[in-house]
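Q: What structure does this chain adopt?
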Amino acid sequence: MIRINEFIMKILDRPIIILAIACVVCLGTQPSQAGEPKGIVFLTWKPNQPEVWKRLIQRFHQENPGIRIQRQVGPHSSSEYHAIVTQRLKNKDDSVDVFFMDVIWPPEFANAGW
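A:
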C-alpha cells in the first residue's frame, strides 16, 4: 500500500503541477525593491503532511530564487479553516496571497464577490 506522503509526492512531483502552483503563486506577488526576493504567503490546511510541504517549498525556492514562500498552516477541521478564510475575505485582509479551498466553496465565494 502506498503511504499518503508518497502518494502526494507522486502527484505533486509532476512539472505541470509545480508550474501551475508557481503561476498561481506569482499572481499574488507584490512589487519588491530591486534585488529583494518577492514574498508569498500561502495558507494551507490539514497540517498532517509537514514534510511533503517542506520538500515542495524547498524545491520551489531552489527553482525560483527570487520568490520566497511563507506557509501558514490552518486547522485540520474544514469548518474552522472555512471560517478563517471567509473572515479574511470579508475583512479584505490582504495578509494571505494564496490559499487552499474545498471544492464546494467556489460557488459561495463567487456569490459573495470574492
